[in-house]
Amino acid sequence: MSFGEIYQIAGAGMNAQTIRLNTVASNLANAGAAAQNPNDAYRALKPVFSTIYNQVEGQVTSAQVDVAAIVETDAPLDMRYEPDHPFANEQGYVAYSNVNTVDEMADMMAASRAFETSVEVMNRARSMQQGLLQLGAN
Questions:
Q1: pLDDT, average across residues 17-39
Q2: What is the pTM of this model?
Q3: Looking at residue 77, what DSSP letter applies?
Q4: How far apart are CA 134 and CA 122, in angstroms?
Q5: How many Å apart are CA 133 and CA 138, to the nearest integer?
Q6: Alpha-carbon gap, residue 103 to 42, rounded angstroms
């Protein structure tokens, strides 16, 4: 595996985790959003990752992550009984987003750590390249 492939794989991981962090930020920003209609309520977004395999002569040589899609979760909306709220329906319920802030914070921490791991892979590959250059200079 070449250093270029290592950088490409780590970069793809960083890109995927950046998209994941962006969806977490969007979800947290809309966590308490109310809607007049349940169909208009904000639904949490989640990235769907897929694996791209790199093959040479039928043998898998490496793999990297890609974001296949960003989908809305199918978790139920938070319906709260607030009859005095301006968005309340005939029964007095207001539709709030289905964002679970605890899950989002856990996702944020996992995405941050995965991003940091990809950065560390790049740093180590760079260090290995510098070591090779120093060997050649001696």
A1: 95
A2: 0.84
A3: P
A4: 18
A5: 9
A6: 16
